[in-house]
């Protein structure tokens, strides 16, 4: 009798599964997978209006090559100049593609906006007492990374605007409070766009991708044609290396990897868009894995003219604006007007990046709050029925950025801290599920629709873990030695402070209410 019961259950399960598969005809396949396989009730107010291309364009908008490489370019100057910029870009692209593919496999196996916290939970043994705590820690690290990397974009945007103004007024430098007000205006403007124009955001991402290519092309032509400070030979442009600026000796070259690593640090953030695209188990991982090669190739055409026309490194380091890119554009173009024309293009790219990255961060916050892991989860985990966005989560992402921006009033190295915290937290949330998947023998990702062949998967995952741990060290270091109050990297202080809030909430409330994400059905 028991055998018959088992057979009946198996037959019923097969019928149900076939029914779920057949629902794709009605366009509900993603909803049934989300509900019956991943355990989440579909959110009716979220539109599945993202395609493979718009997801790829969003990931490229988040990478924002001219800003991602140009914003923290001063680190590459300290890191030795042309060799670090050119060769570092190529090496980082190869290493980050391994990370992207590793994340793509996980996103394909469990295509939910909950991302790394959900992946970590499903990968650990259901009988393990550490399962819920691991998901909680990974989720909070993920949220901290999302918010602070968005903060780094908006604060870097403000810094670029300030440095651009100094092209026309070399003796003027924005005070801390002036920079803060510019930053606040950017945050609030981004909030309004993300809240009110949600249905048009895929089009915005598409336009951003096209505009980024135009910006790169214009910079390539303008810098190469003008070259007011001269053109370097190919050997000098691609191989010049000056290790005297950072004070790290032979390690200086690795400091130069920071801009490229920052550019592609947020490749996993579009996983939070999983519940806004159709056939997410295939299209989402494809978009994640394509971002680095497409963006990397485009980036080559942005950095080459810079390498061939770069002014003396000491002059860039000592410029009054505090940012490398506006000074380079001004010097190479031979006039503030010429430099302004190029930097305005980069500012537009940065504005689009601010929108795209804020959208992704708000979705990640909403998804984690949906699991009852955050204070105010009943509001943060809801989607506004009129606007079709998680409005409270969007507001929280903006508010936290504005509060953290106050750090700038007490430290002139705030931008370095924001960049470092964002990259460190994101990479920590990446490495936990990747390493756990390896420890489980890659048995779960072997079931994904998008996956690497077994030998390749092991190699890719191993490179990812090693590279991520190296990045954790790299982004914890000050840009230059000797360390001063100005050059100090306060990333560890900020990260510990934010982590303490998560830990306090766990003991105050979450340990009694948070049970982890829903259990996935194989």
TrEMBL record:
Membrane topology: Multi-pass membrane protein
Keyword Transmembrane in record: yes
Keyword Ion transport recorded: no
Keyword list, A-Z: Membrane, Transmembrane, Transmembrane helix, Transport
GO cellular component terms, A-Z: membrane
TM stretches of this protein: 52-68, 83-104, 133-157, 177-197, 204-225, 245-267, 287-311, 340-366, 387-407, 413-435, 456-477, 489-508
UniProt cross-references to PANTHER family, sorted A to Z: AMINO-ACID PERMEASE BAT1, TRANSPORTER, PUTATIVE (EUROFUNG)-RELATED
This protein's name: Amino acid transporter
Organism listed in the record: Acaromyces ingoldii
